[in-house]
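Entry 12.
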Amino acid sequence: MIWTLSKIVMRATAIFCESPLTHCRRLVIVVAVLFVGFASVTKAWSRDKAEAEDSARKLALMFEKERFEFRAEAWVKDLGPDVGKALRVQLFKGNDYRFCIAVPPDSGVHVTGAVLDFDGKPSGEIQPVLDGWGCVLSFKPNKTGVYVVAVRQESTGKKREVPCAVITGYR
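Predicted 3D structure (tokens):
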């Protein structure tokens, strides 16, 4: 049985007008229903994070054929509609880097990114995915140091909080 929030509130109000024993039983049921609802939302959110990471790994596959080595771990964080995220990375002069960035493809959210140099200026080349759910940043640093990969949602897609994954590769 699916309970809407208004049904739960109406039922909780009716509970207070009944005997104490009935009150306890119904309170346990209401708490159980809320717990199950929360658990299903948590499962859906973790599934979205896995989809984002899988999508970033699919983007990385085409560069593995070009002898890029990708790190085993992925950076996965929630990306809000108003504020982007920044990922600090240590890059070495002479290496060629690819940053595969993705959100769940069915989310409707479009993402973009840039590599920021020491002065905060965007650098590198961006290759967006046709549907907008991901992009690949290509960057070859002129000197060794800490750079920032900035990721944000574009105005062309839906605006909502969504998991975002970044996988880094180099050769």
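Annotation: The CA atoms of residues 97 and 170 lie 4 Å apart. The first strand starts at residue 69 and ends at 70.
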